[in-house]
Amino acid sequence: MNFYVDLLRELSDAFGPSNHEEQVRDIISRVVKPWVSDLRTDALGNLIAFRPGRNGKRLMLDAHTDEIGIMVRHIDARGFIKFATIGGWDDRMFPGHRVTFKSRDGRFYYGVIGMAPPHVLSPAQKEKGIPAEDYFVDIGVESAEEAAVLGASIGDPGTLAYPFQKLKDDVYIGKAFDDRVGCLTVVSLLKALHEGEIKTDMDVYANFATSEEVGLRGAGPAAFGIDPHVAIAFEGTIGSDFPGVPEEKRPCAQRKGPVITIADKSVLVPRRMVDLMTDCAKQVGIPYQYKMPIYGGTNAGSIHMSRAGILAGCIATPCRYIHSPNTTLYWPDFENTLKLAKRVVERAHELA
After folding, report:
1. What confidence score (pLDDT) does residue 234 get?
2. What's residue 16's pLDDT?
3. 350 an active-site residue?
4. Which pTM was predicted?
5. Angle value at C-alpha 158, between 13 and 8, nearest 5 degrees
6. Would you tell me which of 32, 202, 225, 257 could form a disulfide with 53, CB atoms 3.0–4.6 Å apart?
7. If one looks up domain 3-67+175-351 in CATH, what number appears?
8. Who contacts 147 (Cβ-Cβ below 8 Å, separation ≥6)?
9. Which residues in the chain show pLDDT less than 50?
10. Pairing mode, strands 58-64 and 230-239
11. Pairing of β 311-320 and β 230-239
12. Whole-angstrom Cα distance, residue 206 to residue 334?
């Protein structure tokens, strides 16, 4: 058994659209509770773990627990479901995928996203893009009453869900690697601190944030409460080294190591943070890359604007096909991200 792979499997398979991350929090709480002095969930749904230090400086480690999802917005007389999106979807993604919904009483029910078959479409209709609001979910019933028996109701969250699998040696596929691989990184750092593999005199706050995918909503309030001197967000980011994406438009690539953010749409990382991360990567002898400006955004964006401003940066693991139900991870990329993260934690006091 491999602790890290097994935990990623459990985190990836967990149900956790934005604002509905209870399963993810429960898994993380179970694992990290023996390693921390305090563990609490705030009013928004951020899970915050604390390990005391000795120098009075505070280090915030952040990863978001939520995944993009959908939400029931209408159930018609025949029991077909119309849905709204939660987070940043490409509407071309939806047709034919299986869906898992969670009812208000905690039951799961299942369906498939349907659309008119090509046999009955005109040539013009075939060429037209379909917005998310025009898709429907078939949950196998024939009436709204049958749908209600399953627990279906307006506001139920859902995910496009497929199980975690090993594709080949060192390559895994699953949903929500954005950002369950970041959660795995932060959990692994708490493990390394507990076991004495790495050390810091800073107070360490690990924030497993809610609702990143709907506007970075959880991390900013958490940072306001923690008031860290230094903060690092950990992510699974846009590995796009595949056909159809020219090299000059690839934010990052798999098999090239952890990804250090210089600038994205949410933050311009101070140079001293970038320089320290770069120096740490060189020290531990790993491949590393910079995320191509200026794609995407992370919780570093909301953290750095909290209070009077917080020094924040981001380290990510490259994952292909994020914001889809099937994301791939090259395992040595995660291992090298963790090596970098450990060294950055040990040296973070230099920035405080």
Report:
1. 98
2. 98
3. no
4. 0.96
5. 15
6. 202
7. 3.40.630.10
8. 75, 79, 81, 139, 141
9. none
10. parallel
11. parallel
12. 19
